[in-house]
Amino acid sequence: MSDDVLIPYETTLYVRDHCLCLQAQRAARALARRFDDALRPVGLTNGQFSLLMSLNRPAPPPMGPVANLLAMDRTTLTAALKPLERRGLVRIEADPRDRRGRLLRLTEEGRRLLTQAFPIWKETHEKVDAQLSAVDMNALRAGMMALA
Question: Where is the HTH marR-type domain (predicted)?
């Protein structure tokens, strides 16, 4: 194989400037860091906040719908639940209708922590929305949901 450049540098710049996947990844990482920093005082990451919030339902959900909402496979969801379960924020229970299934219950401690975390999330989100004031946020969310 020769040392010849097969793809010109201009192509790299074109991809950098046009690739939606790259821009979405960069934005996701920047948002994740921002929310991680904001939620650090209550001992949560943005992913843990989203997971706890996804369990804030009238009845404990099964793993499948939670994994689907968070765009995770069940194995990844199980790994993400373990530290929350160890902290007493979440309980994983057998489904009484199907003992093979698992239901995910937010504990009282989990609800208390989520109650502390929500105002932090809301304030951080308001700052992000203000930073993007020139963007139609409903269109942005709709576009992102269409891709998800």
Answer: 17-148
Instruction: Write the pLDDT tens digit of every residue in 98-108.
Output: 888 899 999 99
Report helix, strand or coil for 98.
Answer: strand
Q: Helix, strand, coil % (nearest 5) of the chain?
A: 65, 10, 25
Q: What is the mean pLDDT of residues 6-27?
A: 94
Alpha-carbon distance of 96 to 4, in angstroms, equals: 64
Helix 74-86 vs helix 46-54: angle between axes, to the nearest 10 degrees? 100
The domain segmentation of the chain, as residue ranges, is 9-126
The CATH number of domain 9-126, selected from 3.40.50.720, 1.10.10.10, 3.40.605.10, 2.40.128.110: 1.10.10.10
